């Protein structure tokens, strides 16, 4: 059985462990809290241990201090067609300290996301990239590059958005062997 309540997902059944701990037939999973950092005009950074994301803002990215917020998401808009996601969906926003007004960076910032090869699922690792959700479709961030050796996607976007690490869907298939 599966149920959602108060931002948590509950599963019940023949469970003996959940999250590496003993469980008596029930488990709960909840999205982590948003991660925030105050970034001065001189630059700074923010890291999210939950999804292995790190941001670096150079000097002059903002004219006054801002609060950067990284929020992990369960995307309501999965990739379609030739794209596959790898469980890295998040939103990044900035607000001016004091007024709370939304702010966009004046310079590109660097985002680095380390992925677990086990998360690839149906995605081809060599084609992974950072994609922004524009409200109607996923758009590839032109500055994205991937290192399949260090399992890292790096990009230098110029705006904040809802983001996802996506890649081309694998076209290979392993067919079952049928013995007659």
Description:
With 180 residues, this protein is mainly beta. It is built from no helices and 16 strands. The strands form four sheets. It has a six-stranded antiparallel sheet, with no helix packed on it. The model has no long low-confidence stretch (mean pLDDT 85).
What does the secondary structure layout of this molecule look like, with pairings?
Blueprint: E1 2-5, E2 8-12, E3 17-18, E4 21-22, E5 26-30, E6 35-39, E7 44-48, E8 53-57, E9 66-72, E10 83-96, E11 110-114, E12 129-133, E13 138-140, E14 145-147, E15 152-155, E16 162-168
What order do the SSEs take from the amino end to the carboxyl end, as H and E? Answer: EEEEEEEEEEEEEEEE
Kindly name the structural category.
mainly beta
Widest sheet, order of strands: 6-9-10-16-12-13
Overall number of strands: 16
Summarize the biggest pleated sheet: 6 strands, antiparallel
How large is the share of residues in beta strands?
over 45%
Radius of gyration: 19 Å
Euclidean distance between termini CA atoms? 38 Å
Helix content range: under 10%
Poorly predicted runs are none
Average per-residue pLDDT, rounded, comes to 85
Shape estimate: globular
Number of helices: 0
């Amino acid at each position: 059985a599966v149920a959602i309540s108060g931002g948590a997902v509950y599963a019940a059944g023949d469970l003996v462990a959940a999250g590496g701990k003993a469980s008596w037939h029930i488990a709960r999973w909840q999205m982590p809290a948003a991660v925030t950092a105050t970034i001065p005009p001189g630059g700074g950074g923010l890291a999210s241990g939950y999804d292995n994301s790190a941001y670096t803002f150079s000097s002059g990215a903002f004219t006054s201090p801002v609060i950067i917020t990284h929020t992990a998401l369960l995307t309501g808009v999965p990739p379609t067609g030739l794209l596959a996601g790898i469980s890295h969906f998040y939103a990044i926003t900035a607000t001016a300290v004091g007024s709370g007004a939304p702010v966009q960076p004046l310079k590109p910032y660097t985002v680095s996301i380390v992925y677990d090869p086990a998360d690839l699922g149906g995605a081809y690792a060599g084609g992974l990239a950072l994609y922004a959700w524009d409200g109607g479709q996923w758009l590839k961030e032109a500055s994205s590059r991937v290192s399949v050796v260090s399992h890292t996607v790096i990009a230098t976007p110029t705006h904040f958005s809802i983001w996802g690490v996506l890649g081309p869907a694998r076209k290979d298939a392993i067919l079952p062997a049928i013995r007659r």
